[in-house]
Design brief:
single chain, 74 residues, mainly alpha
Length: 74
């Protein structure tokens, strides 16, 4: 899956951070968990778990930091 509007270097970082890095990248692009779940055909709870694990692996504490990381990389 390719995430729209995500710089290639950041996409690689996010994909290496989590088993389903697309969820993290999509949350950083401003999508809500429910929207991500619909697009990736998974439960909202699964999306929450993936984003939480990615935050821990990236050393971040919230989704706003993901969005800032995406913005600064772009």
């Amino acid at each position: 899956m390719t995430v729209r509007h995500l710089p290639a270097a950041l996409e690689v970082t996010v994909r290496n951070a989590a088993p389903r890095g697309g969820t993290t990248a999509m949350s950083g692009s401003g999508l809500a968990n429910a929207e991500i779940a619909r697009e990736l055909v998974m439960s909202e709870t699964t999306v929450q778990a993936h984003v939480s694990r990615s935050l821990a692996k990236l050393g971040l504490t919230n989704r706003v930091q993901i969005a800032l990381l995406v913005r600064d990389a772009g």
